[in-house]
Design a protein that fits this description.
Number of helices: 3
Structural class: alpha/beta
Oligomer: single chain
Number of strands: 3
Length: 79
């Protein structure tokens, strides 16, 4: 039986201090049919470089970047 694709949408805004733990936990999941959509919403800290490093390590991560704060949590809720 084929497993369904599961999408995890993670809005990020100035979350540098939490990203290693959060993305590390998500990436450690054994479920193979998983896509991780990270939406960096114009963070002013080092969130974007952290997201980019995780994307290099895990092909399941899709990274969307906004360079102005557009309230990604609202955008993510509407996907």
């Amino acid at each position: 039986m084929e497993m369904p694709l599961v999408s995890i949408i993670l809005p990020v805004y100035n979350a540098q201090s939490h990203l290693n733990r959060c993305l590390g936990s998500i990436c450690a999941q054994q479920y193979e049919d998983l896509e991780i959509i990270v939406i960096n919403d114009g963070s002013k800290d080092q969130s974007l470089p952290v997201c980019e490093e995780f994307r290099k390590k895990d092909s399941r991560i899709l990274l969307a970047v906004s360079y102005t704060h557009l309230r990604a949590h609202e955008t993510a809720a509407n996907l």
